[in-house]
Structure formats: structure tokens, C-alpha cells
## 1
Amino acid sequence: MRWLHRCSAAAVGLMRRRIVATMRNSLRGLGYVARREEAVRVELLLLVVLIPLALWLGDGALEQLLLVASAVLVLLVEMVNTAIELTLDRVSRSHHPLTGAAKDVGSAAVLVAMLLFLLCWGLLLSN
């Protein structure tokens, strides 16, 4: 049974190192987009205001969750869009119709997330 304890202790140590490395990479990515993307900076600033506002204005946990989640979703989609754009720029700087289409689709995804945000906040706060 000692071998099992040693194995599980090693597994826990490995998990901790992986979690720390994952957090470090995630924070580095968040810092990257916050420094280079004005839209992300604006969305982060809005979240600082909107999350407490959602918790105050939401009538119950479900409404609060919908208000917060819809606001966070905009930031999430913006970050994925930025990752797509960075990847496309890395592959080639020359213009290609598919590159433009991919960037437009990413931008459209951000628009849809923003419309969902407006719909959630509008419907929940109009009651």
C-alpha cells in the first residue's frame, strides 16, 4: 500500500505543477490581449462595473448568473477572435479571401455575443 500512497502523492504533485503552469499561461495570455487589444481593455473595465451591478440588479441567482455570464461571454468571444486573428496573421500577412472571411466570421461572433448581452440585460432589467 505504500507504493499506492507514493504514486498518489506523485500524481498530486504533478497535478499541482500542471495547474500552476496552466494558470501562468492563462494569465500571460490575458495580459497579452489586455495590453494589445483596446476592445479587451474596454470589456475588462466594463466587467469591473457590470459584475457588481448584475449581482445588485439581478432578481435571484439565475438572473444574476445570466447577467454576469452574458457580459463575460463577450470578453470570451473577443479573446477567441483575437487568437484566430493572431494565428491567421502568423500564417501569412498577405491578403487572401479566406483570411478575410475568417476574420469577418470572428468579428461576427463578437457581434452575436454583444447582441446576446444586450438581449439578456434588456429583458431581465425591463421586468
Note: The chain has a mean pLDDT of 92.
## 2
Amino acid sequence: LDLGYEKRQVVSGIAKHYKPEELVGKKVICVTNLKPVKLRGELSQGMILAGEENGTLSLATVDQTLPNGTKVK
């Protein structure tokens, strides 16, 4: 993830819902003040927020006009 001030790796279970190319350039809302943890053998440095209903996942997103790293209030 490009947070504007740094890049981080986030491990998530969204692969069955999104192809990698669908995520490139997408502005998603992330939790970045979590301790890094190992998930599935990889370091995860945050959490991507999403909602799910009836098995359909929807990422929490923002307008494209906001710069990377903008804080959610």
C-alpha cells in the first residue's frame, strides 16, 4: 500500500473477491496504527477496511481526489 509518506505490505483475505489488477490505483481506507504481525507467513503492516453482505465483499474507498495517506476523521 502507498500511504503517501511510506509504503507498507498488508496481508488480507480479499484474493477471492478481487484480482490484483483491480486493486492497482484503488484508494482504500486502511488502519495503520496496528502492530505488524505475521499472517500466512508474511508480514502484515495494517488492515484494509471492507464490508461484506451475503458473501459479497466491498472495500471501503474514498474519492480519487484525496492524496494517499489522508487521515480519516
Note: Helices lie at 20-23.
## 3
Amino acid sequence: MEEVNLAPAPDDGILPEGFFVTSNRKTKICLKGKLIPVKNIRMDCCIVVDPLKEEAICLEPRKVKKGDLIVVGNKGVIEEGELEFMTSPISPERPAWIMARDVAKLIKSIKGKGGRIFVVAGPAVVHAGGREALAKLIRMGFVDVLITGNGLAVHDMEASIYGTSLGRSLKNGRYVHHAHHIWTINKVNSLGSIANAVKTGLVRDGIMYECVVNNVKYIIVGSIRDDGPLKDTITDMIKAQDIIRAEITKGVDLVLGLASALLVIGVANMLPYDVTLVVVDINPSVLIKIYDRGSKQTICINSDVGLFLRELVRFIEQEGSSTVS
């Protein structure tokens, strides 16, 4: 096979013309007659090569330093499989309970082998009645990392403190008070952190409570829409990306995306090809968008997220012992 072409980066964060842009597939380069695997592969990045160490790493362009040797062109690059776009098989006619059963089996299998599972969730999990189910999934030991936004964290804790989500009762759906989520942010921030809100007894149940008491890492990513935000929310997007990327490089076997289009797409773009991505959303256009971006390892489920989570937990419990040791 032909040797890979390398060119130095002309400046920090600037790449040579025609640099090779990665996909999420397993990739190797031919260097000094050897096939070298590219580490930490993800889509839409570049390949930085150290000829002396005979190493190649997939790196975000913003992290490239002047003089780094970058793969240019396709020569000497091998990618497994084919990357396809705009071929989505999304259908709203597949029963959600059957998909929940199959995902439950997959989750049990992965955790049984010591694998890692990430959950990427939006505030609709709380609004749609999936809060208790996701909290239980965390409590049972089936979640290793929670990636979410300011909204879910706020409304989850609002539910614990006031029994509402966006001011509506989670018991009967009636409007109670629009200020509850703002008051929640103020109460939690006055204590310094979500962890302190749990330790002091302000937050006594729910998703964030289970993360704290079970030592499950949570990454809260901010946006321009956020009220507050909570002090735990990461408002620097580059920092948030780096933290999520660091967790992915530690290893992940399954990502469960729950009603959060932007966050799920962002995380999906960081995943290697062999990580399974299960995405649940009531809007089929969201599923199509994620699938058509080249995430061929994606299982798309067109369903109400609350219904799906309740069914998922039910099937996991039916599969046998519900606690991961």
C-alpha cells in the first residue's frame, strides 16, 4: 500500500490544505510500510501523526499545534466499511414496547460484560413522566455517565422540591406556579452545587439525586436558552466538548439518547463507529437527522420518551436481578 502523505500544520488550529477529514469508522494509515491504527476515532476531525513513535491520533482541528504532522489526502488511509448518508429506515410503526424489550436485553448484556453506558437526556424526560424510570435506571447501576442540559437538571430538582415541572403538577398536570424552576435554581445555587442540595436534604429524590448518591458522573452542558444557570452547568462549550470527549476515550459501549436532539447529535459526532447509539424521540425528523449524519450504529425509536423509559425499566427487571454488582 502507498505511504500516507503528511504535511505540517501552518499555525495553531490551522490545518494544511486538503487535510484528511475523518469519519467515525475504524481507520488505519500506512506509515513506514506498517498499518498504524488511528486512536480515538470520531467524525469530522483530522489525523495527527508522530513518525518517531509510529502513532496516529484523531484530533479536533482546534487542538492542532503549529508544526504537527497532519494526514493530507486519501492516500495511505484505510477505513472499514462505507459511510452512507440520507438512507434512514425510520418508521413510527414499530411498537415501542418491543424496542424497549430489545434495548433492555442489550443493556443487561453490556453491563454483564462490564461495559459502560452513557445516557444523554433532555428535559422532556421529566415533562413526559420518565423521571422516576430514569432515576431507577441510575439506581440499579445501568448508567455510568449522564450527559444533559441545564433544563433537565433544573426540572428534575423542581419536581423533587415542588412536585412540578415547568410549574405544572406531575401528579395531575394542573398549572401551579411559573416561578418554581427559577426558585429551584436559586435554592440550589445558594447551597453551591447539586451535590450540596442532595447532602442537605433539599433534593430528596429523582435523577440528579440518584447520580449524587450513586457516584454517577454527570455533565451538564449549557446553552443560550438557560435560566440561571445552575452553578454545575458548563457554559464554555469547548470545555464541555473536551470533558465529554475525555469520557468517551475512557470507553463506552452504548449511548442512550433520550429526547434531546442537539445534545445527542453533538455526542454522536464524537463516537467511534462501533459504539451503539439508541435514540428515542417522539419527533421522527430528529431521528432521521441523527441517522442521516452517518451514525449507522444508531437504533432509532420513534416513541414518547416517558412511555419508553417505563417499559425499558420493566423489561430490565423482568430479565433477572436488577442491580449491577
Note: Confidence is low (pLDDT under 50) at residues 84-88.
